[in-house]
Amino acid sequence: MTLPSTLPNDVPATTVLKVKGASHSRTSFLLHLRPKYYPSLSIYCRATWLLGFFSVFFFVLESITGLILMVYYVPTPGEAYSSIGRLITEIPFGWLIRDLHRLGGEAMIVVVTLHLLRVYIAGAYQQQRRMTWVTGIGLWLLTLALAFSGYLLPWDQLAYWAVTIGTSIADTIPFIGQTLTTILRGGSSFGAEGLLRFYLLHIIALPTIFLLLLAIHYYRVIRLHGISFVQGPGSDDRTSCDAKNLERQTFFPQIPLAELFLSLVCLIFLTVVATWFYNAPLQHHADPLHTPGQTKAPWFFLWLQGALKLGDSFVIGICLPLTGLLLFTLFPYFPSNTAKQFNPFYRKIIFVICSMTLIGLTVLGLPRFGVTLNPAAVILLSFMPEESTSRFHAIGFDNLPQGIYSTNQSYAELPSQLQTLLNDFSVALRELPDTAIDGNIQGILMIEDWQADLKRITLRIHRQAGPNLNTPTSLEKQLYLHRKQPRISPTETSSHER
């Protein structure tokens, strides 16, 4: 009699099947990577929402696109940025490969996180699934580590300072903090050694550990205990089924064809998004001597940046997250009241509290919270962001005629989009606190034909001398716009007062 290779819940994994007089152990991993039969319930979308499949899909996508990027990437401070620039401007479809790699990495973080939360909410971490839960936590951490290590590789301004500030948290650890930070950066600050270390972590060390953990995780799910079936609201999450009566599905050809179809649909969807709706950022070349006005962590670590605004970096940034992670990892091993520990109501209460806390900290981590900037500088940054494209790029090269324009005048002959920008600039200046005092603030826009097919755009806020100001002051910001707008942001000069 042949039984399904993947059995749910607590069916012993060492069951020996008699086939033609020979004994074959069901625990063979190398010879039986995929079972011959699956319980039909396990392949339904609602069983796991396919989150495990898509987690592996995105890892494979990242591996393939990453191997292509490695052909053109040069891991040195002098060549890293320019090699990315050549990839996205000179190599056919190089920009698409890079966008897919960045988009896939961010999607992988979301999917792996949702997969982990589904397992938690379903209570699928009990008994022999406890070690599977621990390996799942490890895979989630490695996903974040892969994203963080890859964040530095373009060697642009935003990534350089985000990773610099992120690694500085380790410096707060007593006794070993400074040594650990030096090991991560390859010195007191990021340079050639630090970039190479992050590159090797990203392409060798972390993927190797990820594959090992994934093999253990997959083996336990597919060979030892199967998935956790949730039959409906109020039911016991640890549902057991009689293996003999379990409806089953053969692996070939239905399941491979379904997985291939899902992979193609997902790849087409990602390609459409990367082509028309998504652009992997590449900002200014990293400058260790200039800190951007609004440095921020990657979106998946904004919660940590928000938490650091509340107190001591060591306590808030290291102790509390590590304590929470340890409790979350060892939750199935707690010798507490089993009914309370595994009760869906208690799990959902904990989930809601943790989710609201992380959302609040993420919002607090945004640059506009907890940072006091010159109001005039904030206006200039809103029209000419340091690390993203501006409204001038949306207007376009041909709709920016050369000239000097003031917010105190109207220009009927200007293109409508440029006239709208000037009006918005004028409205923003009238809302400045200084305007209410003496009303002598003027906005100036200068557009110059700097070189062939290159314009220099200067946005200036000028305050004349008055009752509350002895000498005039000026704050300005510049950017250069090429006729053929590249997919990377143009070079901008930093704001300065004079």
Automatic annotation (TrEMBL):
Its main location: membrane. PROSITE patterns: CYTB_NTER. One of its GO terms (biological process) is respiratory electron transport chain. InterPro entries: Cyt_b/b6_C, Cyt_b/b6_C_sf, Cyt_b/b6_N, Cytb/b6-like_sf, Di-haem_cyt_TM. SUPFAM superfamilies: a domain/subunit of cytochrome bc1 complex (Ubiquinol-cytochrome c reductase), Transmembrane di-heme cytochromes. Residues 467-476, 488-498 have a biased composition (Polar residues). The chain crosses the membrane at residues 49-74, 103-121, 133-152, 198-219, 260-278, 314-333, 345-366. Keywords: Electron transport, Heme, Iron, Membrane, Metal-binding, Transmembrane, Transmembrane helix, Transport. It is found in: Membrane. It is a multi-pass membrane protein. One of its GO terms (molecular function) is electron transfer activity. Gene3D superfamilies: Cytochrome Bc1 Complex, Chain C (1.20.810.10). Residues 466-498 are annotated as: Disordered. This is Cytochrome b subunit of the bc complex.
